[in-house]
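User: I'm preparing a small set of examples for a lab meeting where we compare how different chains pack in three dimensions. I only have the primary sequence for this one, and I'd like the structure in token form so I can line it up with the others. Please keep the answer compact; I'll paste it straight into my notes.
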Amino acid sequence: MEEMVLVKNLVKRYDDVIALDHFSLDIASGEIFGLLGPNGSGKTTAINCILQLLSYDKGEIKLFGQPMTQTSYDIKRRIGVVPQNVAVFESLTVKENIDYFCGLYVTDKRERKRLVLEAMEFVGLEDYERARPKKLSGGLLRRLNIACGIAHKPQLIFFDEPTVAVDPQSRASILVGIQQMNAQGATIVYTSHYMEEVEQICTRVMIMDKGKTLACGTSEELKVLVHAGEKITIEANVSQAALMRIQSLDHVISAKINEGRLEVTCENAEHNVADVLAELSKAKIRPGRIWAEPPTLQDVFLEITGRELRD
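Assistant: Understood. Below is the structure token output for the 311-residue chain.
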């Protein structure tokens, strides 16, 4: 499979602060690659260096198998960028905005007209082509931001927090659109503060902090790395004695009673639920509803970084 993005030992300093500390990354053609990290972890710096929007101290960057430099205009034409902050012209209509940004890459007017119409239809803005940005809702404005970044049909697209502050319906539409772009051949680099989005659409995920890679793999591969496994919740009137016995079970990390529910966190093991239920049976405690949930990407992130994603 073709390597779309290759970064080796990237170092970026701001005076005495090391923003990227020998950071490396590889993304294959056809991936939706999630890049996660707390605020200040180096995500945006890494992307800006890859796009040659920032200089860096040392390291190697290749896109589409070719060295990426500030003057690599042939490579840049194959890239789309959808920034976190909406970047459109208030004085232009929806159609004029998309046409302007598409025109930075496509000079043929007939071809550009077709691409602009396709982009509007793709993000569902064909009924708003004459509207100006200030008249659009937050969700529609995000869709315009996306259309401006993808109208020229790039092969590699960077999405930086594309669903911030949008309603659930628009968020769902944006995620479906990203998956459709990927199905049509685009490779996606995706950053988000919403873990559920990353789990839903990304083929691989990298967790980084302090300018370094901490872990990389599929969501399932990352979940295997963490100490915490299942989270078991049982509706039951549990005595203190039974709680202590459950706390002493093999593979149990923690157990507590919360508003009439027994909440147990376990290591990855095969018989966690059965072992807990056996202890309840010994204590003659009849359980009500039972939930058993595998670890989430949020659990992985918290254990690996020691921080919440928005820290």
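A couple of notes for your slides: The CA atoms of residues 52 and 70 lie 5 Å apart. The first helix runs from residue 43 to 50.

User: Perfect, thanks.
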